[in-house]
Write a structure and sequence with these properties.
Four copies of one chain form a homotetramer. Chain A is about 45% helix and about 15% strand. Chain A has 18 helices and 14 strands.
Chain lengths: ~475, ~475, ~475, ~475
């Protein structure tokens, strides 16, 4: 059965070998350690949803291979509607957690992209990579796995290709090809949600030429594979997570970004889907970013929905009608819907690959990436504007002070404002703060790549000379008007 | 055969009775008079496209009734893809004409909306309105008609309902119900493209209650029906259209907006699809605006494409590489693709009516309306920034001066700049001017209704209380936080 | 006496030789010809103001040379307050005319800039240029002259320096130095307000090196000097100006932009203030743009004030309370005040030249230029949003139709909306149209140079390395962090 | 001597009684405790500057009373230049500390405002309040005091006036008037920089009527006055401040916001400058906000300068040329200069009070407040865009991990990118993070009041009817066009 429960999921995580560190400490149980339990909880809620009568239509679907019911995030995406279903799941996730569920996001996209890429490779080389991949997908569907994904390499000197780096480890590479598998070495940085994942799908971080073929690696590994060490990054407000009173200052959900160090990791052949076929890295990146940047609009709109909710509440907790801020709330809703609707448009304008995979329209998807790196910032600004000073700069004491036996009552006395207790006002203000300058801030700027990269794609997908011809025809201009020679 | 040629179309227009005025003059032949020939040319190009091997896939389709090949603008829209096909046609139109082809836009949407509304009415009243409509649609498909649409009434005092106006004619109304038809009286204002149309589809301009049932009118009339007088409005640069040298200052294409005065116009029953069924005006407006505001993104993106082309050309004509302005050109392209992709998203997120008609998602469509009333202004601003002073404020002499026997050569001498003749530079600059502050400016602000109206729809389609609940659940807040009592 | 009346001014214009053309026609009397009477009226109103008890404090001042009362636009600007007084006059001008009074703008700045530049030249060369200039200023003050200014050359191929152009006339140049004066030849393009001016102050259009010294020309000539031909440019709506009913469609005020062709024009030495001293063209341009771009904020804010007024009126004429649009009106007012206040800030942060002239702070002034090329576009967009469709795309008939004996009454019947006559509503809508897409659109984008030029100045006045040091000190970073070598 | 040294200042703080708490702990020595030492260091740097040959011209001036050299922040502001000098100091402060020096900001403005208000009161009541104030100012100048200021009350239910609150303490109030002074009770919230101050100047938080006269209080108290308890608020990243490795993650400078609880605090008469004169609270608020909101542009531009510096560095540390991001850096610089120049404009357009105090122009100052709550958000967004993922979401491990004996070297290996060590790259990324989503985020949204409050002032200082008249005159409209009656 492809549908797992929260408990099955948590048990599975508990059974893994510890290899994640934060603040110098090895995390023995990711499901209870304060540094990782929030990201795990965010993903555990996906399993709740898969088993919820109302939400299961979003969170589950049928396997295109077996017809079995499976978690949606383990499914093939083979139509515009499948991509939009991905978006719906993501928006819902953010609405319920206020944060990123990175452990069911990159990996999902990765195996769908590889479905197309392995077909292309197989067609040239007569290999059987797609079949390998299919076997792994069937396994993932059956086990209901949460599969993180990893693309970004350490990169080293940005002006040099991987094979020209002083330190060749700056990009993850194959250091040895063995009969039964490959040995990989290097790092993947800024990887979301691994603490909540059971496996990690690895893709190359760029588009490579022949001299860089050792870096053309796609494979999938258990999160606790031997030789892999994960260090969780620190975010502005994550020390709060460690405190006993954290439930009042920080939600029970959350996200993580981590550093993955691979030291001589052996990956058996049946989990390797690209190892040297550099020619296909370019398509791989194109397919991946098109889908990823189409669907990312759903993440930020989902978090935007929570900001709309938090701001509405915040107004009331401050003793004001939320209608006072209706113009701003409408603007927030518009921002959310631009990012979401434009993502859906990228899906609707997409094309089907011969393998059956469906890819969003690149120009629209990358346009949305630019919007995703702009509009949520305005939404956050409005959240702070509506919320007042206690949201903007955390003009509130810690929960430790709030409950201090000596002066805690004084604080509560003076923080009472609207039709609710000082404590409720406190929690809402902390939520707005967390969403806008705390740990809830999602990586909408660089997650999935930089906006400048997206602008480049827009540039190269805009047919400037065709547009020049329209202008000339409209004015009946026959003369050539060339670029100046310089 | 439902596909007509340019000549058939022009002949049909020539055969109509003259009832259009401009500058105090009755226009005898709309196909040659300088006040209307540009809008006719814009629509004649649709017929060229329908008969063009490459463009016919955009401009034609099969009738869902007969299976015959018909002009796309005469077709039923019954899926997300049908709506997106509408958008593709619109974008293409603007690319080729630089302007609005209003004569194939509102009417097309109108009969599709009425397909659903007549079904709803028939179901309640047992009437046969949908069949009537079907007959007319078959006629339109067979004749390959260009059908304008008319919604906006004169309205009079905005604070009063139609039946409370001092002058009841302020909204088009039924003044008599006869056995064979109805007699209507009043005006429809700001109606696009009627001079290029053969028929005009009339819809009610608002959502009405019982006391206003006389204003609940949907019907279709020949453009030259007895009792109808049309006055074309004047735009900033349309006096140029009248001059013999106009081809150098103004494109051969263009748009019109007109005033329609109905004086005791008799409409026979087989062309009447609503006459008093006020209860359905609300749905009618909802369906209409959802589709209209989804697809309008295609218009402004098509014109934006021409602005990108004109600006690229303008840079070169000024002697500069267009790459100098690449950042601005990319921003323009992004603006275009937001409006287009968001429209496509509204289509993709739409729903199918039981009648078979397909309607775009209101929240996304109205969000796009807000974007459509914002982003093209920035695109125009960038067109002026790239083009230089000669574009912005028309710092160029008239074509009459440009060709003046005495000093015309001096002008040409001094207007030569880039790798092209002074005349070509002149024409490109005029195009950019026309697109940004001349007759080419489309009604992206109020066409299809005001942005504030759209914001209201966004407000009422945003589930604020649901979002409040997400925020509360995330922070485990159980307490009620009501709006202040005031 | 340095204060002239409207009549004295108009008489002076009437006494000049005709050398201005438009639409192929020589304009005999600029004060009555429909192509120029509006710009003359705009400037005549300055003389009214100078003789008005309330406005004279803005429009007049005392000569720093003689102590006599003079028109403010003939005065020296030698303090921050003097520059701000310039701004106040400009804002007031726009408020009363809705348009540009270019004939008292560039010339005023030009002689103040040359006051500093001639001092610098005199100090190096021992010349007496400043004294020459003083004599001319005394003459201008005494006669109360309206002095236009001309900088922009035709330029030809932008990638080549003036002396490298195929056609050397592409930039105005000295073709012969005679004992009593110089002979100049070439063109100045896009020159504002010359039809309303008595003299034209000429400055070089760029910063030149030795090989281009023939182009380093500063001098002042009567507008009707022998050898000078002026062609007025055409703007989108200026054919309306020619019609007898123009008063209803277009204000009585207005602006012009013209082409100035100099053919072997002799300028006597006492009117020449730079002829070859190329080394000082760089300072000249710097001084000029700093002051010009500081004060230009006052122009656009003044016109913005009229847009606020027109929009308030328009709401009422449409039958709506202006309070409905209060948020938008406040945004418009904020835009106006940013441009005005930032200009005032540039003045306040300016510096005094050793000559006594006062120059605005370049970084702030050029920052304002960028704002001036952005914010008024948003103000115009809001004017169109508030005004409704009849403002945006001129969805109103011509005045000729409005008063047509046959159907004019019908038009009036249907255009009545608010608490005013249809005619008043008509005029307000035309004003809003004229301000936003008609002849009232000021050259806020390229007037005084391009925004990209301003961005360059911001770049070179921002001390990046100093800011890097602040960042390093804050984090106690000692290590060098150089730019990558490539 | 009015100029103190860093050591004198720190000693003075050390000699005060402890009354500040954070995280449940009483802070014994604010100069060394990790929760307060950063804000103290920020202010100590002011004393360094006052004694620095280059900076003293910004940080010191002459007393208008005694002619003695004093710290600038103890001086009277009696001209536009004095206000601009305030701005220069603030920009410089932010450049050197990256953060707010609230302890020399509100208090400085407060006593200057009271200089005017006490004169007004004295004139009506024949009191000698201004003389009292003068004595205190002389004392502050002589001792070189750092004087924080406190306006914002707890407020309670925003819909009720102070005297109508259930809990009268919701606004600070006089609970008893004694012969030698007054006894005050209540709270002031969100008060900046008190931990670094020696005294706190208290002003009323609103404009009051007679029934609220008990809340009309202006006085000044030592920070450690009996009955006053201060609780420091917590910001997202301030737990980092407490760690031993904090120097690598957080600057040595910083800001604090605190809660001030006054319990039966006795203030002797010679320190009371308003106690019940409610009529003058309205002027007081007007004067205060005009100056405060003019000068606040200098704070955010100073911090913006640091963001420009950090971003330039960040690009290099990532191995890229900062020129790659030149467009973004120029936009950041423009944002900074708009806020700064517009503030200077508000000063330049200000007016002199009969008391000698000088107040900025309200319309311009409040316009700047709106800009200050908008532009820095864009500057922060650009800082994150340039910086890459490690800046945006803190995709970097803690310093504890960075130096971990087991895997620290691995982290450093993979974080090396540009021409600098991994450690330097780490620190710069932390700085950018701190500036944009960490403790360095200044209160530019609500500091000095909400932007909506500022918009209200813009509304009431915009003469809409005067602008309506301009529009009417331009179109020669005589008819009245009233607001609709409703």
């Amino acid at each position: 059965m492809g549908i797992k429960t929260r408990e099955q999921y948590l048990n599975s995580l508990r059974n893994m070998s510890p290899n994640i560190y934060k603040f110098g400490e090895l995390i023995e149980d990711v499901t209870t350690h304060p540094a990782t339990k929030r990201v795990v909880e965010s993903h555990a809620m996906n399993f709740d949803a898969s088993n919820d009568l109302e939400l299961e239509k979003i969170y589950t679907t049928k396997s295109s291979f077996t017809g079995d019911k499976i978690h949606r995030w383990n499914s093939m995406m083979q139509s515009s509607d499948d991509l939009i279903a991905n978006m719906k799941l993501k928006r819902q996730n953010f609405r319920r957690t206020g944060s990123c569920t990175g452990g069911v996001c990159v990996g999902w996209n990765a195996f769908n992209v590889m479905w197309a890429v392995t077909k292309e490779i197989d067609e040239e080389y007569g290999s059987k990579l797609q079949e390998r991949l299919k076997n792994w997908i069937l396994h993932a569907q059956k086990e209901g796995l949460t599969v993180a994904g990893a693309l970004t390499d350490a990169k080293g000197d940005r002006s040099l290709k991987p094979s020209k780096q002083t330190d060749l480890d700056a990009n993850l590479r194959t250091i040895e090809v063995k009969e039964k598998g490959i040995i990989i070495h290097g790092a993947k940085l800024m990887i979301a949600g691994t603490a909540a994942s059971q496996e990690i799908f690895i893709l190359p971080g760029g588009s490579y030429r022949e001299e860089d073929k050792d870096f053309a690696i796609a494979c999938v590994v258990p999160r606790d594979i031997e030789g892999l060490t994960i260090i969780e990054a620190t975010r502005p407000s994550d020390r709060r997570d460690l405190e006993s009173s954290s439930g009042y200052e920080v939600p029970d959900t959350g996200a993580t970004q981590g550093l993955l160090f691979f030291e001589n990791v052996f990956v058996p052949n049946d989990r390797v889907f690209m190892a040297g076929e550099y020619k296909y890295t370019s398509n791989l990146i194109q397919y991946f970013t098109a889908n990823y940047r189409a669907c990312i609009g759903a993440c930020v709109s989902g978090q935007g929905d929570v900001m709309v909710g938090a701001s509405t509440l915040m107004a009331r907790a401050n003793g004001l009608s939320s209608k006072t801020f209706m113009d701003k709330l409408i603007n927030m809703s518009i921002n959310n819907q631009v990012n979401y609707g434009l993502g859906a448009g990228a899906c609707a304008l997409g094309t089907k690959h011969t393998s059956g995979s469906f890819f969003a329209d690149p120009q629209t998807a990358h346009t949305n990436k630019v919007m995703v790196s702009t509009l949520p910032y305005e939404t956050k600004r409005l959240t702070q504007e509506i919320g007042g000073g206690i949201v903007e700069t955390g003009c509130m004491p810690s929960y430790k002070d709030f409950t201090n036996p000596e002066y805690g009552e004084l604080i509560k006395k003076y923080y009472k404002a609207g039709n609710c207790s000082a404590e409720t006002r406190y929690k809402i203000a902390r939520l707005s703060e967390w969403l806008t300058i705390g740990g809830g801030v999602p990586g909408c700027m660089h997650g999935g790549g930089s906006p400048d990269g997206a602008r480049l794609v827009v540039r190269f997908t805009t047919p400037f000379e065709e547009y020049v011809d329209y202008a000339k025809k409209i004015m009946k201009i026959d003369e050539e008007v060339p670029e100046p020679k310089k």
